[in-house]
UniProtKB/TrEMBL annotation:
This is DNA topoisomerase 1. The active site is at residue 299. PROSITE patterns: TOPO_IA_1, TOPO_IA_2, TOPRIM. It comes from Desulforamulus ruminis (strain ATCC 23193 / DSM 2154 / NCIMB 8452 / DL). One of its GO terms (molecular function) is zinc ion binding. NCBIfam families: topA_bact. Keywords: DNA-binding, Isomerase, Magnesium, Metal-binding, Topoisomerase, Zinc, Zinc-finger.
Length: 728
């Protein structure tokens, strides 16, 4: 009986597929990539058609030795790396190292680790897809051309140790551009008027002033609001129109890589990297007790929402058994691909809908359970009947003024019985029931409540919204979103604070330099076009060497020109009045990985450094000191007393000049995600804990939100801790 060797990337994957193969199969793991371009050399021969010089990755020698030994003992070799370009490249590199004919039927792929999928793959091997390999090679070499040529320029002109990436730089630019918008934003005042109405014997309801003389009303200032309140004084109110409609709400499509990362960020507070690490574990397989190792979800790098007919039928049966026929849609759900979708794989879904998350929870870690439940619920909901909503709209007239109330109740929950998609602003949907009223009914206004607002700047990017904009702009592909987000933080160009991304001063300086001298490198459209060209290479419609030639010649000319024109760029080396206690020199502000700090300019003779304290102009509520902005060693922002360690008062909220009218305590500015900023008394025992901010504070809110030069942080801070360790 012939013996077959199957090579996959990981031991977990090997264990999962091994149980579906017979005794004549041996499954080994390559532990990911086995060859790559050298780290210490350029590794690309430009004069020889951009020929890459691959070397065995350090530490993989023993693995290759073991695989070569296994190859000699086998009659057939099957390379079962992941079903994408990276997986194809791994398989191709293995053919080179293990002396396997790449034109032979040595490559198998599967979208899920199930018995049927594995056995079908083994029956249908194929040669290596060289077009896919070339697309992966082209991306790798493009990144090497940019990184190895541009990074030394940044070392000479800005700071040693910097690096620039082709796709990552575009992501940093998006974050920097958004910061520019926020800093340039000027808040504009506007007002709203809410009325609380009631009809005898009915429950009260709220309505918002909507129209004046049949035109949508805008209230720019208090003067106009006062006029409106004067007009409505003593007014009578009656129901002008009642509109009732039945609306259907359809479920969201099953997950793609991008939408999974977005939803895991919204609902689970997972970073993009964490989402992909946990999802990979679910795909490769986990031990489910007596059932043994099993892959729980389909392949996790996909831009398709397509679902196989088999999976759709299994879901239909499950829905029928658990929820009843009303929850099964009349027609099977068909999703339409949007934009430039490769559609090579299915959507991300459970490999078996019968594996209820609750039934296998005991075998999973908490993170695995939460992500699996998210994927399972989203897929199940995507195959269910639409929800039906009863919506009601009431217009309440008072002369030329019209108030509008809207209500919505769930008539039939449909898919909402299982899953509701999250929102980027963190808001939750609530039912709102309005009383039964008829046109002409008189209602009484119990009170009218005017409220002042200020327009808000565009929000900073989060993991969810950054991945979303990358996908919308065509930057990167499903396999690259998480690495992009991870890399720009590791390089110190952006930091994440309270789930939002801020550019560091270093990031701003580098992006400004790239904008001026390498506009194509950070041009969004140019980068998206390059992704399309790589797609064409993978499809066999374009030559990979041609793409590299078209890119490299103008890039090389730009590089030489920039080297001559760019002078040394200084980054935030500002002299301060603070003396170095060791040598007496005036300390300077330097920029480190986690933001600004004070350093002695006498380096290397004097190596004294200390945290930079940025004054706020607000007195410490505990002593006679001043509140200053501090940063911990890991870059987290907090506010503490300038007299530390004599005074240990600390808060994570922004101190304001405003005093609490109830107790005279310090007011701090809080910023709840998806809501307007608000001020609150810091005194936990204050009788009026929340207090409406003054007009001046509100006007300053936009300006405060724009002061973000070098923020840093990795975790959402606790609120108003009385004690903290400023050293981080």
């Amino acid at each position: 009986m012939s013996k077959t060797l199957v090579i996959v990337e990981s031991p977990a994957k090997a264990k999962s597929i091994g149980k579906y193969l017979g005794r004549n199969f041996t499954v080994k793991a390559s532990m990911g990539h086995v060859r790559d371009l050298p780290k210490s050399q350029f590794g690309v021969d430009i004069d020889q058609e951009f020929s890459p010089k691959y070397i065995t990755i350090r530490g993989k020698g023993d693995i290759i030795k073991e695989l070569r030994s296994a190859v000699k003992k086998s009659d057939r070799i099957l390379l079962a790396s992941d079903p994408d370009r990276e997986g194809e490249a791994i398989a191709w590199h293995l053919t080179k190292l293990l002396d396997i004919d790449e034109q032979s039927p040595c490559r198998i792929e599967f979208n899920e680790i199930t018995k049927n999928a594995i056995q079908q793959a083994v029956k249908n091997p194929r040669p290596i897809d060289q077009d896919r390999v070339n697309a992966q090679q082209a991306r790798r070499i493009l990144d090497r051309l940019v990184g190895y040529n541009l990074s030394p320029l940044l070392w000479r002109k800005v700071k040693k140790g910097l690096s620039a990436g082709r796709v990552q730089s575009v992501a940093v630019r998006l974050i920097c551009d958004r910061e520019d918008e926020i800093q340039a934003f000027i808040p504009e005042e506007y007002w709203t008027l809410m009325g609380k109405f009631v009809k005898s014997g009915k429950s009260p309801f709220e309505a918002k002033l909507h129209k004046y003389k049949n035109k949508k009303i805008e209230i720019p200032n208090q003067e106009m609001m006062d006029k409106i309140l004067g007009d409505l004084k003593g007014a009578s109110y009656q129901v002008a129109t009642v509109s009732k409609k039945e609306k259907q709400r359809n479920p969201a499509a099953p997950f793609t890589t991008s939408s999974l990362q977005q939803e895991a960020s919204r609902k689970l507070n997972f970073t993009s990297r964490k989402t992909m690490v946990v999802a990979q574990q679910l795909y490769e397989g986990l031990d489910l007790g007596k059932e043994g190792p099993a892959g729980l979800v389909t392949y996790i790098r996909t831009d398709s929402t397509r679902v196989s007919e088999t999976a759709s039928e299994e879901a239909k049966k499950f829905i029928l058994d658990r929820f009843g026929p009303a929850y099964v849609p009349k027609q099977p759900r068909q999703t339409v691909a949007k934009g430039k979708v490769q559609d090579a794989h299915e959507a991300i879904r459970p490999t078996s809908i019968e594996r209820d998350p609750e039934n296998i929870k005991q075998y999973l870690t908490n993170d695995q359970y939460k992500l699996y439940k998210l994927i399972w619920s989203r897929f199940l909901a995507s195959q269910m009947a639409s929800a039906v909503m009863d919506t009601t709209s009431l217009d309440i007239a008072a002369g030329d003024y019209v108030f509008r109330a809207t209500g919505s109740v769930i008539k039939f929950p449909g898919f909402m019985q299982v899953y509701i998609e999250g929102n980027d602003d963190g808001s939750k949907e609530e039912e709102r029931l309005l009383p039964e009223l008829s046109e002409g009914d008189k209602v009484e206004a119990k009170n009218l409540t005017p409220k002042q607002h200020f327009t808000q700047p565009p929000p900073r990017y989060t993991d969810a919204t950054l991945v979303k904009i990358l996908e919308e702009k065509g930057i990167g592909r499903p396999s690259t979103y998480a690495p992009i987000v991870d890399t720009i933080q590791k390089r110190g160009y952006v930091v994440r604070e309270n789930k939002q991304f801020y550019p560091t001063e270093l990031g701003i300086v580098v992006i400004d330099l790239l904008k001026n001298y390498f506009p194509d490198i950070i041009n969004i459209e140019f980068t998206a076009e390059m992704e399309e060209k790589l797609d064409k290479v993978a499809e066999g419609d374009e030559r990979w060497v041609g793409i590299l030639k078209d890119f490299y010649q103008p890039f090389q000319e730009t590089l030489e020109n920039a080297d001559e024109k760019i002078g040394k760029v200084q980054v935030a080396d500002e002299v301060t009045d603070e003396k170095c206690e060791l040598c007496g020199r005036n300390m300077v502000i330097k920029l480190g990985r986690y933001g600004k700090f004070l350093a002695c300019p006498g380096f290397p003779d004097c190596r004294n450094t200390k945290p930079l304290l940025e004054p706020t102009g607000v007195g410490c509520p505990k002593c006679s000191g001043e509140m200053v902005l501090r940063r911990s060693k890991k870059g987290r922002k907090f506010y503490g007393c300038s007299r530390y360690p004599e005074c240990d008062f600390v808060t994570w909220d922004v101190p304001t000049q405003e005093k609490c009218p109830q107790c005279g305590g310090m007011m701090v500015e809080k910023n709840s995600r998806g809501k307007e900023k608000r001020t609150e008394c810091i005194n936990e025992k204050c009788p009026g804990k929340e207090y409406k901010a003054s007009e001046q504070t509100k006007k300053e809110a936009g300006a405060v939100s724009g002061k973000t030069a070098a923020k840093a942080g990795k975790k959402t801070p606790q609120r108003n801790r009385k004690k903290a360790n400023p050293s981080g």
